[in-house]
Amino acid sequence: MLAFGYGCGPKAPNLTDPPPAANKLGAIGRAYMLATDALDRGPLNKDELKPYISPDWADLDVFRSPNDNEEYVILWGLDYRGMDLQGNFRKQPVFAYEKTGKDGKRLVLQGRYVFQVEDEDLTKLPFPPPYQAPRQ
Q1: How many Cβ atoms from other residues are within 10 Å of residue 11's Cβ?
Q2: How many independent structural domains does the chain possess?
Q3: Is 111 left (phi over 0), alpha (psi -120 to 50) or beta?
Q4: How do residues 36-77 score in pLDDT, each as one tens digit?
Q5: Residue numbers of the domain that contains 23
Q6: What are phi and psi of 85, to 5 degrees?
């Protein structure tokens, strides 16, 4: 079962009333892990991920953030099974994030959690090889 959390700053995830953009990233995260298990590797594109998106999101554009109206940046081909997703939730690898965000902040899917970070802090998060943080 995939845990879903939303938080900002160094606080623990707040499990109540996450914004719609966080819910979308959470749905992408759950689908990413289901697809990885089924494909025995990380999904390589949206077409490989779509069958694992919850039916609750079937009629919505789950891949587009309502905060910036841009598609989320998804790091394709990652296999979460070889990563430590049990340790410090703030040190878990980035799987997806908002392309531009809103008001100088972006939502980021790290492991099993969705966080809001300042734009400049995005570059400090752990991006798994071969990916690198976007340049500011």
Answers
A1: 9
A2: 1
A3: left
A4: 999 999 999 999 999 999 888 767 789 999 999 999 999 999
A5: 17-122
A6: -105, 10
